[in-house]
Amino acid sequence: MPTYLYECENCGRFEEFQNIKDEALENCPQCGGEVKRIIGAPGVIFKGSNFYVNQDNSSTKDKKTNSEKVS
């Protein structure tokens, strides 16, 4: 289930787990005030290695320098 971010005029921001087919909330569950759904960037988790351009590949560099020294 996706997590949606809402903002209440009185209570501030809160997250709500909802089905994709559900309608957006109109009232705050705490105070009953009017809420707006906030569109934001999804969280992304990268697992594994070599996802970053600036990642240090020191093990690869060491292998290249060792092979160059041998030849």
From TrEMBL:
The lineage of its organism: Bacteria, Bacillati, Bacillota, Clostridia, Halanaerobiales. This is Putative regulatory protein FmdB zinc ribbon domain-containing protein. Residues 1-40 form the Putative regulatory protein FmdB zinc ribbon domain. InterPro entries: Regulatory_FmdB_Zinc_ribbon (IPR013429). It comes from the Bacteria. Coiled coil: none annotated. It comes from Halanaerobium saccharolyticum subsp. saccharolyticum DSM 6643.
